[in-house]
Structure formats: structure tokens, C-alpha cells
């Protein structure tokens, strides 16, 4: 798969926000700590690393087998990208960055994220490339 080759070569790593921007986005200070983060489509984990210091546990999903190994090597709990919601965990924060345009069921993904956030305090960080041009690597 072409994208796996790019990722192995260190190409395509994503910058979305700095640590300072992340804390501003959530309106928390640098010492804020929560229990559980889910980073959907974590790629090489570069963005996950910006967020992980604020969580006691970090779960990630990723389609690429190579990147799943990279993420596991960084100490993250790697969940199946199609079955993570079956775990019935409630997350403090779910990050879904540039994934909705790459999955075959974006509305189902949004519903699963909504149902997996802690009621009242859970936060979703969502980023999308606009204009949306669906490109599905795995699925229909």
C-alpha cells in the first residue's frame, strides 16, 4: 500500500496543533489530567504524542498494519479500527483528525464517537479536510 510506504519513510506525518494549542482548544492548563483518550486514525502517533501527557491511558485505532506496530511500540493500546466501540469504554476525549473523509461509514463513526464520550464532560476533537472528497482506503 502506497500510504504504508510513505509512513515507513517518515513522510505524511501530520501536524494539527501544538501542545499549547491543544490546551487552549480544551480550555485547560498544562497540568490538566484526565483518564482516557481515544485517538481514531492515529497514523504514526505524532499528534497523539502532543495529547498523551494529559491522560492516564491512551487508546488508538489505525488501519495501517505498519502504523499499528509503530503505535504499539510507543506504548499505546491499539484497538481494532472496526470494533473499538464494542469495548464499551467511555472516553474523556476522542480525537478524530482527518478521518471522516477516509472511512466508508462516516455517520456511523460520528454516532459511535458520541456514544463513547463521558456524558456531560466528554469532548470530541474533530478535524476535516474541506472540501470533502471521500477517499476510502479500507472498506466499501
Automatic annotation (TrEMBL):
Family annotation (InterPro entries): METL9, SAM-dependent_MTases_sf
Name this polypeptide is given: Methyltransferase-like protein 9
Organism: Limulus polyphemus
Lineage: Eukaryota, Metazoa, Ecdysozoa, Arthropoda, Chelicerata
Amino acid at each position: 500500500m502506497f500510504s504504508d510506504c510513505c509512513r515507513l519513510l517518515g513522510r505524511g506525518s501530520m501536524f494539527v496543533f501544538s501542545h499549547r494549542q491543544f490546551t487552549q482548544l480544551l480550555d485547560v492548563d498544562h497540568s490538566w489530567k484526565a483518564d482516557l483518550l481515544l485517538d481514531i486514525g492515529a497514523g504514526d502517533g505524532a499528534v497523539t504524542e502532543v495529547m498523551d501527557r494529559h491522560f492516564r491511558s491512551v487508546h488508538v485505532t489505525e488501519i495501517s498494519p505498519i502504523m499499528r506496530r509503530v503505535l504499539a511500540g510507543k506504548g499505546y493500546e491499539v484497538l481494532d479500527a472496526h470494533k473499538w466501540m464494542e469495548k464499551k469504554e467511555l472516553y474523556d476525549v476522542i480525537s478524530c483528525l482527518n478521518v471522516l473523509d477516509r472511512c466508508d461509514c462516516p455517520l456511523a463513526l460520528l454516532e459511535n464517537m458520541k456514544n463513547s464520550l463521558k456524558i456531560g464532560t466528554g469532548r470530541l476533537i474533530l478535524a476535516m479536510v474541506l472540501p470533502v472528497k471521500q477517499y476510502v482506503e479500507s472498506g466499501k
